[in-house]
């Protein structure tokens, strides 16, 4: 097999470690393991200072931003003019740095980890593939440009595929669904037979993750049940203060621990030691859960999960857990938690199912599938 030179362009690179960051990291690591030469062009403002990267000419139009989407009047009249202007500068920066990287690295193929990154390949004749997740899939010029021009489109779930088809229905034959995956060997090392009486949630603390409904559900559990279990919340975000106040208001603060951001090793240790992973996301501002990598990580650690029907969650959970019908109903979440932790036969059966299904989510298999897409493109 010919070894390829692959330029990966991303706005999601660890740290922090979320679903798309995990995808990008595993893609880079897997491609290198297969012997390919990989360059990652990172535009993630959470771990690099984009302001320092800006040049004076990034404040002016480039070929990538000469479009009505970026008209001055349209940007200034938008509900968030500062955000729109920032995106204008950002796209000019991405265009400039990507053009230079393509010239110097001379890739065989470019892989965009999100369609928003259209300016990185604008005007280039280098073949490219784009990965699609969920919340970025809205019908606007940057996204539409990538979806129309990419030779193949990678979706992390059938839910993401359906969203893509609403924007570019003519591309149906060019979409490949390859689920997000993880390093199963890493997670197998952390599996534990003995589980602590912990219920755990790992996510960014934002509205669509719906952690407040889980806290309310925890408060509805019988007192003897609540006293037996501790609820661990790993992650940080704008909702943290509200969630901590809610726990106090419901008088369950002594049974809930907000642990903030933790490193990968500690996250794996805490997750593998827990009895149940709970995350019941809900739609918010056109944002949905594209897949949910933490459901897969939980199952790889031998931990059953409780999720919702939002977005690609059912595809991630499969038959390795339960899904609530109404994620905004704390009583339904509480009933599901109680069932999972009270019915030992049901719980043990889920653990057996998890061991059988988790093999399909090996990151190396995911990378091999994506490499097959590269080869298909290059053979055209």
From TrEMBL:
<dbReference type="InterPro" id="IPR050194">
    <property type="entry name" value="Glycosyltransferase_grp1"/>
</dbReference>
<dbReference type="Pfam" id="PF13439">
    <property type="entry name" value="Glyco_transf_4"/>
</dbReference>
<feature type="domain" description="Glycosyltransferase subfamily 4-like N-terminal">
    <location>
        <begin position="17"/>
        <end position="185"/>
    </location>
</feature>
<feature type="domain" description="Glycosyl transferase family 1">
    <location>
        <begin position="188"/>
        <end position="356"/>
    </location>
</feature>
<dbReference type="InterPro" id="IPR001296">
    <property type="entry name" value="Glyco_trans_1"/>
</dbReference>
<dbReference type="GO" id="GO:0016757">
    <property type="term" value="F:glycosyltransferase activity"/>
</dbReference>
<dbReference type="InterPro" id="IPR028098">
    <property type="entry name" value="Glyco_trans_4-like_N"/>
</dbReference>
<protein>
    <recommendedName>
        <fullName>Glycosyl transferase family 1 domain-containing protein</fullName>
    </recommendedName>
</protein>
<dbReference type="Pfam" id="PF00534">
    <property type="entry name" value="Glycos_transf_1"/>
</dbReference>
């Amino acid at each position: 097999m010919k070894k390829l030179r692959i330029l990966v362009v991303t706005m999601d690179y660890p740290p922090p470690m979320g679903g798309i960051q995990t995808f990008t990291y595993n893609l880079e690591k897997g491609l290198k393991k297969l012997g390919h030469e990989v360059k990652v062009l990172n535009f993630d403002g959470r771990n690099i200072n984009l302001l320092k990267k800006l040049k004076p000419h990034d404040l002016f139009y480039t070929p990538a931003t000469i479009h009505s989407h970026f008209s001055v009047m349209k940007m200034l009249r938008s509900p968030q003019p500062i955000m729109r202007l920032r995106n204008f500068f950002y796209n000019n920066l991405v265009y400039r740095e990507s053009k230079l990287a393509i010239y110097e690295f001379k890739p065989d193929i470019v892989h965009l980890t999100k369609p928003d990154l259209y300016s990185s390949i604008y005007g280039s004749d280098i073949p490219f593939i784009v990965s699609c997740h969920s919340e970025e899939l809205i019908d606007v010029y940057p996204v539409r440009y990538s979806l129309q021009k990419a030779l193949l489109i990678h979706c992390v779930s059938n839910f993401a595929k359906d969203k893509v088809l609403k924007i570019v229905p003519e591309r149906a034959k060019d979409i490949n669904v390859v689920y997000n995956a993880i390093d199963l060997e890493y997670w197998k090392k952390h599996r534990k037979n003995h589980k602590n009486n912990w219920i755990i949630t790992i996510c960014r603390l934002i509205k669509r993750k719906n952690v407040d409904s889980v806290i309310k559900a925890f408060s509805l559990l019988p007192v003897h049940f609540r006293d037996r279990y501790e609820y661990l919340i790993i992650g940080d975000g704008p909702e943290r203060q509200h969630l901590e106040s809610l726990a106090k208001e419901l008088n369950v603060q002594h049974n809930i621990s907000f642990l903030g951001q933790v490193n990968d090793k500690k996250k794996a240790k805490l997750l593998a030691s827990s009895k149940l992973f709970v995350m019941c996301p809900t739609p918010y501002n056109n944002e949905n859960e594209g897949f949910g990598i933490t459901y897969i990580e939980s199952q790889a650690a031998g931990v059953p999960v409780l999720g919702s029907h939002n977005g690609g969650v059912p595809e991630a959970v499969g038959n390795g857990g339960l899904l609530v019908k109404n994620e905004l109903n704390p009583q339904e979440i509480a009933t599901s938690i109680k069932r999972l932790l009270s019915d030992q036969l049901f719980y043990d059966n889920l653990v057996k199912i998890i061991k059988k299904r988790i093999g399909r989510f090996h990151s190396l298999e995911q990378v091999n599938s994506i490499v097959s897409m590269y080869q298909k493109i290059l053979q055209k």
